[in-house]
Design a protein that fits this description.
The chain has 289 residues and is α/β, with parallel strands linked by helices. It has nine helices and seven strands.
């Protein structure tokens, strides 16, 4: 017998959802949980699978075809659009934007924008909800994550602008996971500059359930972190940016002193700059004295 749906999730049964990145860790797990709760789900992903339409969200033509197909598969009504598709390349932010930087912007920012625009008429009609997955790194600057950070902070701005223009008819929530060990980190690990231990570690389940709760809430929450520690970190990074920059800089200096990133070619310049760095004399920006 199917267990009863918990009271705080009773808004969900019967809703229709599209999930991007649905063949990935977060997207696949979220689709599974939503289906168990009675939500009708169609996924979008470059890797098609049962219940997942093949779609490269960086391709305008594919999105224009796949989103209406997904809505049609759901019976013509769309209540939830959940964005997970993302990439996390390692880059030197002082270097000219390369293919990795362009990919981060195309997938993390413009992909969500592109899919939302294709779905906005259906969402407006149903008084639906958009949930975008940003990151605690949207407000925490760490070495070699610049392309990811820029794209995720821009995604936050996109969600805020979407709320400003469409908030009368469409709810918009931004979710901020911390560090979760998923394949998105394969790029930085391959480059030798993984971010393990630099941001709060969380479980995949934390993010999935944060998204599910946001989808089930009576009114769309504006900003949601995945854990209590993530909530504290989000508050700190947004309201005390100077303090968090100092903390991050000290942590990076300690890691470099221990030989972290030692074999990574991309980190040579950072090691050189830190080894000869003089203390900064300018006061931190915002939230500190």
């Amino acid at each position: 017998m199917t267990p009863p749906v918990p009271h705080h999730l009773r808004r969900l049964p019967g809703l229709n959802a599209v999930v991007t990145g649905a063949s990935g860790a977060f997207g696949g797990a979220t689709a599974t949980v939503l289906r168990r709760l009675g939500v009708n789900v169609v996924g979008l992903d470059r890797k098609p699978a049962p219940g997942v339409i093949g779609c490269d969200i960086t391709d305008d033509a594919q999105v224009r075809e796949a989103v209406p197909e997904a809505v049609a598969d759901l019976g013509g009504r769309l209540d939830l659009l959940i964005h997970y598709a993302g990439v996390g390349p390692a880059v030197d932010i002082g270097a000219a934007p390369d293919t990795h930087a362009h990919q981060a912007l195309e997938v993390n920012l413009l992909g969500a924008w592109r899919v939302t625009s294709a779905a906005i008429a259906a969402l407006t009609e149903s008084r639906g909800r958009v949930i975008v997955t940003s990151s605690l790194l949207a407000h925490l600057q760490l070495p070699f994550a610049g392309a990811y950070t820029v794209s995720k902070r821009a995604l936050v701005a996109y969600a805020d602008c979407l709320r400003a223009e469409y908030g009368t008819h469409v709810g918009v929530t931004t979710v901020y996971p911390g560090y979760v060990d998923t394949p998105i980190h394969e790029s930085s690990r391959a480059t030798g500059v993984a971010l393990d231990g630099l941001v709060p570690a969380e479980r995949e389940r934390d993010t999935v359930m944060a998204v599910v709760r946001a989808a089930a809430s009576r009114r769309a929450p504006r900003d949601v972190a995945s854990t209590a520690l993530g909530t504290a970190a989000l508050h700190l990074t947004r309201h005390f940016p100077g303090t968090t920059e100092q903390i991050a800089s000290l942590q990076v200096g300690l890691l470099l002193a221990r030989g972290t990133f030692g074999g990574a070619e991309i980190a040579q310049g950072l090691r050189t700059r830190h080894s000869g760095a003089a203390p900064l004399t300018n006061a931190p920006r915002g939230g500190t004295t």
